[in-house]
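Worked example 3. Consider a protein that binds coenzyme A.
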Amino acid sequence: MTATPRPQIRPYAAADRAACLAIFRSNLPRYFDPSELPEFEDFLERPSGDYVVVEQDGLVVACGGCYLREGVGRLSWGMVSQQHHRASLGTALLVWRINHLFQHTETPEITIDTSQHTAGFFARHGFRTTLQVADGFGPGIDRVAMSLRREDWLARAQPSPRGATASPGA
Ligand SMILES: CC(C)(COP(=O)(O)OP(=O)(O)OC[C@H]1O[C@@H](n2cnc3c(N)ncnc32)[C@H](O)[C@@H]1OP(=O)(O)O)[C@@H](O)C(=O)NCCC(=O)NCCS
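Given these inputs, the predicted complex is written out as structure tokens:
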């Protein structure tokens, strides 16, 4: 029996574009609305802040980013390939981004716009819902605005990303 390879987190490169678009498409139509694809394509041309990919066994299986907007931390376009859901990759990616923002900036909070399908995932890490707009992203996909306060994150026992490692520079 071979062990599952440890996921590596490294900075996004232009060569990862096709893999990231495939990850987006794998999450249609439950998690993303098709109308969001052009926005993601534009974003990948020039990602804001730090955008990283998670590589496992030589394959890019997840991607996501973080940046500061008006002094507040933001998470952007985080996603795991649908066939790799529930394998702790989303947690590894989220914990990396939260730690990156809170360690490298003074932001008092991190905010995200997500959907009702994943709000529970973020709530597990201390995010609280601040606004919910029915069908905000498209039919059947609400926009759920959530926020994680620095003190709430620091007060929590840090969740373990179960073996993910970060490459230098990620
Ligand atoms: C949300 C997402 C990133 C989670 O990634 P994942 O790799 O499947 O999550 P993990 O395996 O790390 O899950 C960790 C825990 O959260 C739970 N969890 C995972 N997805 C969840 C969800 N959608 N709602 C509630 N809990 C969830 C898991 O059951 C797991 O619990 P366990 O440790 O007790 O088994 C993934 O579902 C995804 O990419 N969705 C599509 C893109 C998207 O909607 N992104 C949101 C930001 S735009």
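Take a moment to read the result before moving on. The chain has one domain: 8-166. The chain has a mean pLDDT of 92.
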